[in-house]
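A protein record pairs a chain with a discrete description of its three-dimensional fold. The following entry can be read in just this way:
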Amino acid sequence: MQKKLLLVVAIVVSALASQAQVEKGNWLLGGSLGFSSTNNDAVGGNSTSFNSNIVPSLGWAVGKNAVIGLRGGFSTGTTKYESNSSKQTFNGYTAGAYWKMYFPFADKAGWYTNLGAAYNFSKSKQTTMGSLVESENSGYYFNFSPGVYYMPTKKIVLSGGLGGLAYSHIRTSGNSTPVATSSAFIFNLLNSFSFGIEFLLGKDHSDKM
């Protein structure tokens, strides 16, 4: 009786543990919704920004808990400057690729790392005392970001991103400024958040232990 009970417990535990795995050959279809808020203190006045984005994605598991994929994206944001009461708005579009690794630490949960690269294009408008300045930005960026995930079922992955480290190179042109380029490293851990959901498509490998 005890042996049978132990066998049942082992089978149940194994089945639960398998739910937190992404198996080789799975397709992951989903996306994420993100937002960030910053308050910058600068000489001459402060500025506050709020940005949000939606990012659909399609990935393929090249190995157990290892996924490569493609992402698109749309972002929008607003920045207000206290020094001259001006306001800047922008809309941006992104296309890129990513490499994601999952590291289970519980039956249905774990953490992940995400390494991505993308090309970005955006248009912005800034209004200052009735004067309108328009500009276009284009460039590329690389980012590394961590997060946590939870699998309520074997086919659904819920995730939460916690910001990360990024490098960007941007070319700017506008109706009142010459063409310029800039590069920057950005560290925004715990200052930028994203929430995502992915659906696992393909063969169920949970019976292979």
The beta strands are 27-42, 45-63, 66-81, 86-104, 109-128, 131-153, 156-161, 165-174, 180-187, 192-201. The longest strand covers residues 131-153.
